[in-house]
Please model this.
Amino acid sequence: MTAPGGPEERRLREELVRRARQLYDRGLIAGVDGNLTARFGSRWVLATPSGLPKNEMEPDDLVLLDLGTGARTAGQVPSEPRVARARRGRIPSSELSMHLTVYAERSDVRAVVHAHPPTAVGLTLSPEEVHLDICPEAVVFLGDVAFAPYATPGTEDLSESLKPFVKRSNTILLTRHGAVTAGDTLAIAHQRMESLEHIAKIYVAARQLGPVTPLPDAEQERLRALAGGTTAEPDLEELVRIVMERVQARL
Model:
């Protein structure tokens, strides 16, 4: 059984810091925006702390949560009984409950990323109905991109806004706020966030030329069937390459 304090926790701490900095460097978060979590073992979750810019975060700044017994131990944050270990002054984000909602609804999810990708968030303000299933990459990797209604950040309303979508979607846009991506690894959750912003930029570029239509349903089903035949957990480029090779082989 994976326990805290071991090599798995240390590896995840380092990866969370690296992924958070990548989000910052690529303009998907700014200032103290966004939060990331990853779980290990059956009950442990590492979370980025509140109020700390992601480009200044260090591995020991991450907050360790115990989702098991919930029993308090010395050094826990009084307002958050699930905190098992935290550096002095570090508390989990006020949006932690959003992450915990995803974990509660999806036993297959091992990481959640929340960011504010500007182009993608801009699409939530569009008066038009937006569909992002416009490219093979979006269909295969992002899946069903859901649009959750606006809810006040930092409140339970935000977590509730995810519930109608989280069981069927790994990629959720939060109206006027940001986005949430989930994956069975932190790498996949992070790549989905980057891909979401990339596809949103393609949509905006195409929309300047005229109406944007999704891929036909039959083609989407074909792509999903082809992608379902992969056995590994590849990154985005590798996944798309596999799908494209299989499509071309059947032409």
